[in-house]
């Protein structure tokens, strides 16, 4: 099978498997009486990040740090420049000031933390534990904030809500808790989890194999492939959920989806990858692309603060900047 087909097959399996896994896990959690809010902040919130998680872990286990770290960094860059830019082109995004100060600043801080690890440390188990504890703290804060019902939603909540936009009535963060007849539907849900897990693991393996083969055949580094092709491919769920929200004129949810995804990517995926398969950060990524990730996170704060709105002109700028980043990253 050609490298292109391996990559495409891997992406399809990752997305399909992640969908099945999350659906099954959500249904089981509902039967266990877990609150819809907690399901949304954890299982559904992580759902669109499943492709990035499996790909980075498998790449790290396979000894391909350029793909493992490049996937995380490249996904965050693509989320802001490409996905948010396209969403703003579809429908201008109103920016809640409280959300920007809280989640936007946190997104920049975690980007700076990953840059610090890349420059002065390594993605070892200690860093993984710190990142995962940070994510647990953020989810706990989001839980308290949403439970207070102030109407000031966190990015973690809006990331789950964006996925609900794609599955109306299917993966709801407001759905009633179902506890009657516990075993009804549980065998099928367990089957979804098992099949979904098998698909994401298999898809991740195909994607990593195809990406490394493509790097060899094109004579480019694995980091370039991880930062671009793999990162954009594994970010497809975020692109779909953000676009659906934008088309339905819920563009503020698209912003929360991007900010939440970037926080989950660094703290959750970076933390899990470091804990399961510690890996060194490639110098070329630490020396350039992580600075780009931090730079675009700060740029988002500036653009969003200007008029508390990201309009079509700003969206076009973000997409143009992503095109420039791709042109710079790929060797002539």
Automatic annotation (TrEMBL):
User: Main location per UniProt?
Assistant: membrane
Q: Which UniProt keywords apply?
A: Membrane, Transmembrane, Transmembrane helix
The record, for InterPro entries, names:
K/Na/Ca-exchanger (IPR004481), NaCa_Exmemb (IPR004837)
Q: Where in the cell is it found?
A: Membrane
Parts forming coiled coils: none
Q: Which residues form the Sodium/calcium exchanger membrane region domain?
A: 4-143, 189-330
Q: Which residues cross the membrane?
A: 77-95, 104-121, 127-143, 190-212, 224-247, 259-279, 285-303
Q: Does the record carry Cell division as a key word?
A: no
Does the keyword section mention Glycoprotein?
no
How this chain sits in the membrane, per its record, is: Multi-pass membrane protein
PANTHER family attached here? INNER MEMBRANE PROTEIN YRBG, SODIUM/POTASSIUM/CALCIUM EXCHANGER
Write down what this protein is called.
Answer: Calcium/sodium antiporter
């Amino acid at each position: 099978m050609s490298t292109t087909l391996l990559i495409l097959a891997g992406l399809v399996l990752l997305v399909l498997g992640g969908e099945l896994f999350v659906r099954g896990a959500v249904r089981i959690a509902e039967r266990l009486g877990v609150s819809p809010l907690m399901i949304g902040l954890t299982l559904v919130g992580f759902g669109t990040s499943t492709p990035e998680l499996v790909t980075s872990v498998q790449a790290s286990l396979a000894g391909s740090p350029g793909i493992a770290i490049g996937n995380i960094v490249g996904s965050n860059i693509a989320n802001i420049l490409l996905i948010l830019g396209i969403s703003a082109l579809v429908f201008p995004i109103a920016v809640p000031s409280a959300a920007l100060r809280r989640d936007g600043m946190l997104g920049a801080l975690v980007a700076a933390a990953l840059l610090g690890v890349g420059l002065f440390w390594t993605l070892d188990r200690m860093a993984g534990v710190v990142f995962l504890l940070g994510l647990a703290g953020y989810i706990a804060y989001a839980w308290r904030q949403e439970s207070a019902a102030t109407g000031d939603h966190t990015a973690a909540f809006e990331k789950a809500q964006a996925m609900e936009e794609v599955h109306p009535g299917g993966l709801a963060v407001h759905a009633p808790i179902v506890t009657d007849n516990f075993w009804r539907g549980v065998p099928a849900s367990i089957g979804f989890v098992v099949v979904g897990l098998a698909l994401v693991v298999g898809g991740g393996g195909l994607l990593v194999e195809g990406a490394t083969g493509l790097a060899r055949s094109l004579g480019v580094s694995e980091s370039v492939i991880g930062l671009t092709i793999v990162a954009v491919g594994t970010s497809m769920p975020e692109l779909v959920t953000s676009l659906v929200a934008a088309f339905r004129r819920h563009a503020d949810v698209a912003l929360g989806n991007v900010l939440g995804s970037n926080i989950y990517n660094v703290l959750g995926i970076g933390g899990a990858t470091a804990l399961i398969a510690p890996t060194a950060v490639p110098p070329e990524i630490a020396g350039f692309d992580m600075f780009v990730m931090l730079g675009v996170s700060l740029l988002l704060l500036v653009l969003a603060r200007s008029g508390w709105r990201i309009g079509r002109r700003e969206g076009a700028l973000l997409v143009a900047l992503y095109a420039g980043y791709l042109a710079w990253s790929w060797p002539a």
